[in-house]
Every structure is written in C-alpha cells, then in structure tokens.
Design goal:
The chain is of the alpha/beta class. The chain folds into 2 domains: about 210 residues, D-Maltodextrin-Binding Protein, domain 2; about 100 residues, Periplasmic binding protein-like II (D-Maltodextrin-Binding Protein, domain 2, 3-Layer(aba) Sandwich). Helix content is about 40%, strand content about 20%. It has 12 helices and 11 strands. Strands 1, 2, 3, 4, 10 and 11 form a 6-stranded mixed beta sheet that branches.
Length: about 350
C-alpha cells in the first residue's frame, strides 16, 4: 500500500507540474519499433488522432502513465503518436507499425467484419479489444424551427438544407453516415452536406450557414457548448427513441447504447436529453504478449484517477463498464485480467485462440 501511495503521489506531481512538458515532449517523441527501448524495454506505439481532439491527449496520458509505472519495474511502456484517427490507426495496426491504437467502436466493428472503406481489405483477424474507454456521445443539433418531436425524426425536416456531417473521411463522417442511413436517410440526396470539423461547424451554425450538425465526442463537447450558448434557444439537441436505436444497431448489435445528457450540461438545455453513444476502445494486435496487455490494463485501472484528472471525458470510465459496447473479441491478456477481477465475459468477446 505504501508503494502504491508513493506511485500515486508521484503521478499527481507529474500531472500538476509537468503536464505542459508531457504534451510538448509527446509531439517530438521518437517513433520506436517493438522491443526498441532502453535496457531492452518493450516500447509499443499507441496511435491516437489529431492533436486537437480527445484521442490524442488521453493517449498521451496513458503513455505517460506506463512510462512512470510500468517501465521502471517491467521494462514496458507505450509511446503515443498523433494520426488522422480511427481509419489510419487501423492501417498502422495492420502494417505492424502501431500495435496499440484508440479506435471508434464503429471502425473496430467494420474492420473485424471486413467492411471498411476499402473493399480490398479482408477482415482484420488479428484485431483485439483491450478495454472500452469513454463513450463517444452523439450530439445531433438542429435549429428550433425544424424540431417537432425533438428526436432524430426531426432530421427529415432538414431536406435540402445544409448539414455538417464532419470532415471528409473522418470518423465523424463515417459514423454520421451509418446513423443517417440506418434511419432511412440518404445523406448525399437528402441534405446539402458540409464537410467541417467541430469548431468550424459551431462557427457555421452561429453564422446561419448550416441548420444542423452532429459532433460525437465525450461530454461536454466544447463546440456544442459554444453553439448552444450563441444560439440562445435556437439550437435543439435531439433525443433518440428505442426504435431508432434498434435501427442504428441493426448491422452491429449493441454497438450504440443509450446515454443521458443531464440537464444544464450545455447552455439553454433545461431538460435532460436521452441520446446514444458508442464506445471508444483501446485496441491491440493479437501478437502482443499476454503479459504485456495484462500489465497495461492493470496499470490503467489501478491509476484511473490519473486519467480522470487528465481529461474530463475519461471520468465515465470504470472497471464495471470495461466490456460495454466492445465490437471485437478481447486479447487473451485482457481475458485473464477481467476474469481475475470477477467480470463475466460474453462468449462473443472471447478470442478465437480460446476455442
């Protein structure tokens, strides 16, 4: 217990005093191959996303945690690198360049099924889940005058109007297209699509240049806060019905789940909003040793408070929800970790190597 307390105090010190240096050093962290570390340490690359999103800072926090806790005792650590997001992360994993990655759940499900953007890619049979991270919460937002029942059904009222679907080829665009098509909408036919990131979408809504947008991310989303504040009641967050959730989950069951945004989470939002969220997940390739995956998970959950302090999105993480919404079977090292802690693992999450 004394050793654990010392570690925690040391990590608190790193967070409070060295956070700017941690983020700066991560930008220039040399990319290392597997087992290319000091004194024979195993340093694994962890692919995240662009530096302006949530994947990257959480990845940096997790990498810093392993550097502080795992490398001194076990010669094991992660090194976070920025990337274009889930789609590129899968490419880096397939090529063996980055054994670990943070993925949007939809992209994990598609890769496992062999249904990615490229029809030439086979199912990613070596992909494995480590843990669910924070929920990627859907924030469908439209102008007040188009809102009838306040649910996703109101998107039909935006016919031919400008809707921000996300930057081209982004995970946001991919998940938005999946949801809209599941609801019977054709994004290219039914809307005048705008391809913008979150900040640009918020600006466009404020300037009357778009009438709707969706910015899936951990709650609260800065772009939504800004939009709801500036709109002064002219922006409505849409809810999701049970029938709509069932339709969205038709292709990949249990991928999205209900998520309640509490009242007053955003300006001019006096009532709670029941929307949906998919899990972001920490993924790994099957060839990483079981012991290494086990140690990474052990470190993550023993020091979860460190991640909570680092980024608000991770405050939804808990051991009891580690398997919620995972679209890909677990790594054997993760199976061992969860079984030792009494979690019941659904048969669909058992890896092929477990028979």
């Amino acid at each position: 217990m004394a050793v654990a307390r010392q570690r925690w105090h040391r990590l608190q010190g790193v967070f409070a005093v060295c956070l700017p240096l941690v983020l700066l050093s991560a930008l220039f962290w040399p990319e290392r191959d597997l087992d290319d570390g000091v004194d024979g340490a195993s340093i694994y690359l962890l692919a995240t996303a662009t530096t302006g999103g949530t994947f990257y800072p959480v990845g940096v926090a997790l990498a810093t945690l392993t550097r502080q806790v795992l490398e001194p005792e076990h010669g094991l650590a992660l090194a976070a690198i920025s990337s274009a997001g889930s789609e590129e992360n899968l490419r880096l994993m397939r090529s063996g360049e980055a054994p670990f990655a943070i993925l949007q759940g939809l992209y994990g499900a598609r890769a496992w099924a062999g249904e990615g953007r490229s029809t030439d890619e086979p199912p990613f049979a070596e992909l494995r889940s480590v843990t669910a991270l924070w929920p990627n919460v859907e924030h469908f937002l439209i102008r007040q005058r188009f809102a009838s029942d306040g649910s996703l059904s109101d998107l039909g009222a935006l016919s031919s109007r400008r809707f921000s679907i996300g930057a081209r080829f982004s995970g946001t665009e991919g998940s938005n297209r999946h949801i809209l098509q599941a609801l019977g909408l054709d994004p290219d036919r039914d809307f005048s699509l705008v391809h913008q990131g979150y900040g640009a979408s918020a600006d466009a809504f404020q300037n009357q240049l778009i009438d709707g947008m969706n910015t899936p991310a951990g709650v609260p989303v800065g772009a939504v806060t800004r939009t709801m504040a500036a709109a002064r009641g002219d922006a409505v967050l849409l809810s999701v019905s049970e029938q709509q959730l069932a339709a969205i989950n038709t292709r990949y069951p249990e991928l999205w789940r209900f998520f309640d945004i509490p009242a007053d989470t955003y300006p001019n939002q006096p009532e709670p909003v029941r929307t949906i969220a998919q899990a972001n997940l920490l993924a790994v390739t099957a060839d990483v040793p079981d012991e290494h995956v086990y140690r990474v998970l052990e470190t993550l959950y023993e020091h979860l408070g460190y991640l909570h302090a680092f980024h608000a999105a991770t405050r939804a993480m808990r051991l009891e929800g580690a398997l919620d919404g995972l679209p890909v079977p677990l790594h054997p090292g993760a199976v061992r970790f969860y079984r030792e802690r009494g979690l019941e693992i659904p048969a669909r999450l058992l890896p092929p190597e477990h028979g």
